[in-house]
């Protein structure tokens, strides 16, 4: 589909309005996960360059917070419009470096842009108050102020959306931002920064830095100038970053790993549940933090559901994201393939049965055939851990209370999905599932207008909705006395 096209990639970092290379010219390579081919490289910035970026973001902050809210929102709207105008080009870059099918990449760019559109509403900043408790009128005021310089560390599975859902509220609130994208997918981030520059977002307000994750992470977390870190990624790295932010007492938003149960109750519309499971499980080849992990099916409909799911999964077309009609792309790297193989081997050794898939598709690059396994249970690693791949373990259940008790033992608490027609049952699940988000009779829940986030080991803070901007605001109380 992209054959013969030259897709320009920005091979520089963006700091204080300038496109820079590393001071010692060192670089990091980026590969196409579908072919293993070299795509390009980005600079490996030095500690001094990272520190320089933090200083630039600080200088820019004291100017940016003075820019009237409506003007900040106008600049965000201009950025949104440029992204929408260039969505095809951005989606091509995204598919090349991340692997997801082009249609999904286009969907992600639109979704990413929708966060900028959402947070460019000035009314989201109408958050102050005049309290009625003072002895004189207007003597107790509450203001919202921007937190200050913020940092974002983002993952490879949504190279555009994970950035805009942090940057847009930060900038609307009057904060400046330093983004460190995942090393696998920096080019989408850099292309977004290019458009922010074109939109007229002032120098130093948005910066994108590349290089060694640990070095950059250490500088960002230890700097007292950086007042907030927003991280999306694994629970292990999130908890390390949280510890590293403790000495400087930063504000934190952490969107970490999930393990979303997908529950199909006895009265569910089975065809709708199968479609929901396909969407929730196999989107991005299973590599989203809200992907359904294991699928729990009521005993009375288990066999019918399993047969229909397998038939549907066998229709999913694998291939490079730039090929027509492909719905399942490659996994991000070889390590991801090995993880899926380890989880499958563990499940089979404990009595699971492969109903379809179960092996690599081709030996080159990082392909795994969409897989369904039966007879899964809570002892298996694929049920306890986040799979992050195209494997659907089916767990049979007979007792809702027991199921909920087992699910409560899980550390993660991001999303859950339930298919049921019974209002009382829906109310029980809505209350009892220990997660941040629940979808009933749907496999897709995300939207810029709603609060996205988790509980327990899935992290803290919310992105999107009204809540998303509060993460970038600090409350100040003013007492006026005469
Ligand atoms: P995933 O398993 O999805 O790759 P990670 O948590 O490893 O998730 O990575 C998410 C982001 O965190 C990436 O941008 C990665 O470079 C970054 N990262 C990984 N380790 C560290 C670290 N020690 N310090 C700072 N950032 C890190």
From TrEMBL:
The keyword Oxidoreductase applies. It is an enzyme of class 1 (oxidoreductase). The keyword Oxidoreductase applies. Its EC number is 1.2.1.16. The active site is at residue 255. It comes from the Bacteria. Pfam families: Aldedh. One of its GO terms (molecular function) is succinate-semialdehyde dehydrogenase (NAD+) activity. Residues 19-478 form the Aldehyde dehydrogenase domain. CDD domains: ALDH_F5_SSADH_GabD (cd07103). One of its GO terms (biological process) is gamma-aminobutyric acid catabolic process. Belongs to the aldehyde dehydrogenase family. This is Succinate-semialdehyde dehydrogenase.
């Amino acid at each position: 589909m992209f054959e013969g096209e030259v897709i320009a990639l920005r091979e520089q970092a963006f700091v204080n309005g300038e496109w820079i290379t590393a001071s010692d010219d060192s670089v990091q390579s980026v590969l196409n996960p579908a072919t293993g081919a070299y795509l390009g490289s980005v600079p490996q910035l030095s500690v001094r360059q990272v520190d320089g970026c933090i200083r630039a973001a600080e200088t820019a902050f004291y100017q940016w917070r003075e820019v009237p809210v409506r003007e900040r929102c106008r600049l965000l709207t201009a950025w949104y419009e440029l992204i929408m105008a260039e969505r095809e080009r951005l989606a091509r870059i995204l598919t090349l470096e991340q692997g997801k099918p082009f249609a999904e990449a286009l969907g992600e760019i639109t979704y990413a842009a929708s966060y900028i559109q959402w947070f460019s509403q000035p009314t989201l900043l109408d958050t102050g108050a005049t309290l009625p408790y003072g002895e004189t009128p207007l003597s107790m005021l509450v203001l919202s102020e921007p937190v200050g310089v913020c940092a974002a560390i983002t993952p490879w599975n949504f190279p555009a959306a994970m950035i805009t859902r942090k940057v847009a509220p930060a900038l609307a609130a009057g904060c400046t931002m330093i983004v460190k994208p995942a090393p696998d997918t920096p080019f989408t981030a850099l292309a977004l920064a290019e458009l922010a520059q074109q939109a007229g977002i002032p120098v130093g307000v948005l910066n994108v830095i590349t290089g060694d994750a640990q070095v950059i992470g250490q500088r960002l977390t230890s700097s007292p100038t950086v007042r907030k870190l927003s991280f999306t990624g694994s629970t292990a790295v999130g908890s390390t970053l949280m510890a590293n932010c403790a000495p400087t007492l930063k504000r934190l938003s952490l969107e970490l790993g999930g393990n979303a149960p997908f529950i199909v109750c006895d009265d569910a519309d089975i065809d709708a549940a199968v479609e929901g499971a396909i969407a929730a499980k196999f989107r991005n080849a299973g590599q989203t933090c809200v992907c359904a992990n294991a699928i729990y099916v009521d005993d009375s409909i288990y066999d019918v559901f399993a047969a229909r799911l397998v038939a549907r999964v066998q229709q999913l077309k694998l291939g490079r994201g730039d090929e027509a009609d492909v719905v399942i792309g490659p996994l991000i790297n070889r390590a991801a393939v090995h993880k899926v193989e380890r989880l499958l081997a563990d499940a089979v050794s404990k009595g699971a049965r492969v109903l379809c898939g179960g092996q690599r598709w081709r030996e080159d690059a990082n392909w795994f055939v969409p897989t369904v396994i039966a007879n899964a249970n809570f002892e298996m690693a694929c049920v306890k851990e986040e799979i992050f791949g195209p494997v659907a373990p089916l767990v049979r259940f007979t007792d809702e209370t027991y199921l909920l008790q087992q699910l409560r033992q899980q550390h993660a608490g991001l999303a859950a999905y339930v298919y049921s027609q019974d209002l009382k049952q829906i109310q029980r699940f809505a209350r009892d599932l220990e997660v941040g988000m629940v979808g009933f009779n749907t496999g897709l829940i995300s939207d810029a207008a709603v609060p996205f986030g988790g509980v327990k080991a899935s992290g803290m803070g919310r992105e999107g909705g009204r809540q998303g901007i509060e993460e970038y605001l600090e409350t100040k109380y003013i007492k006026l006395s005469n």
